[in-house]
């Protein structure tokens, strides 16, 4: 059976050539295993669209994801992967989910048509009118562009969420940052904080006590100990290396302070937090 008998294409009423460079034409992907149909569509509508082609659904998915066409025209019945596979694969991907799809098929039963609207935007049966295919393609592309434009406009006019930080939060954030930058300095004290923050010592004393319930010395020590605990969990440095890294110069004092804060010595803390990394499950 020849293609002309089964397809009976018509192309009356197509508009004249579109003015514009190929770069301005919409990109349309035609997924069709019948070479004659594929070439009929692409050759007769090449003045209006830039075409990509595939011969089955699997090829179509790969090309669509790489090239992001503005429209897909696909057959349903194809080897390796059919049109439904193509559509559902694209709908399940956030990048390709909104590409409009026209089903072009020889199956003309109502059940197939109704089912196709679960994953496609339009349904055309073969034989088909080329002019109708062209008009429908233009309509879907225009609609898709308008939706995309409205989405972009909405994003532009929607105010960006700005995180509001109170003066007290800003103060504590600044002081904590200074402490962390100077953590290895065992002589870090309120004088250093005042010099680097530009805030007088009375205000530093008062604010830290008000916001944390600690004295300046206690707050600096608490930051040192939190950093020490973080490094101990990583289990990449020795206890003595971490001790100097966080600004302690006396091992017994470091151990005492750490134990008061976490209830165990630094060595025991390391063992407790890294047991799962070193222990291998036993085989029954």
Keywords:
284 residues, elongated, 13 helices, Rossmann fold, 5 strands, 5-stranded parallel beta sheet, 2 domains, disordered C terminus, alpha/beta
Layout: helices, strands, pairs:
Blueprint: H1 3-7, E1 27-31, H2 35-44, E2 50-54, H3 57-67, E3 71-74, H4 83-91, E4 101-105, H5 110-116, E5 122-125, H6 130-157, H7 167-181, H8 190-197, H9 201-212, H10 216-234, H11 239-245, H12 251-262, H13 266-278
Parallel strand pairs: 1-2, 1-3, 3-4, 4-5
Helix pairs in contact: 3-4, 10-13
Strand content range: 5-15%
Query: What is the β-strand count?
Result: 5
Task: State the CATH topology of the largest domain.
Answer: Rossmann fold
CATH class of the largest domain: Alpha Beta
Our Rg estimate from Cα atoms comes to: 34 Å
Number of domains: 2
The fourth-level CATH homologous superfamily of the largest domain is: Response regulator
Mean pLDDT: 86
* Biggest β-sheet description: 5 strands, parallel
CATH architecture of the largest domain: 3-Layer(aba) Sandwich
